[in-house]
Structure prediction request, 122 residues.
Amino acid sequence: MKSARMLSGKGCVIFMYKIGVVGERDSIIAFLALGLDVKAVENKDDAEKTVDTMARKGYGLIFITETVAKDISETIERYKKQMLPAIILIPGTQGSLGIGLASVKDNVEKAVGVDILSKKEG
Prediction:
């Protein structure tokens, strides 16, 4: 993985991975203000190629809108088995589809061993 290396004030080496955002233009354009690499995609093939390219170029984190993610679930599953890039699903302008929350819930349950995020009545 490629990453930028820089020294902290104490002389320690800090690795800085690039962060990318993939999705529909209207949903991701605001991320430009944060200095993230934003790639608007039009279709499934474009989305898969963009995610694969970001992974190959050493991105440490890729945010993907849920609308795009539902079309490229196989690509996302492939990267779940790898350390990097971490892929985080985010809602688009239409609101959440629940896919991102379900993914976070699954990951927390794997890490903790129990579902601690479900709302339980009683």
Observations:
- The helical segments are 25-28, 44-56, 66-69, 73-80, 99-112.
- The longest helix spans residues 99-112.
- The mean pLDDT is 84.
- The domain at 15-90 is CATH 3.40.50.10580 (Rossmann fold).
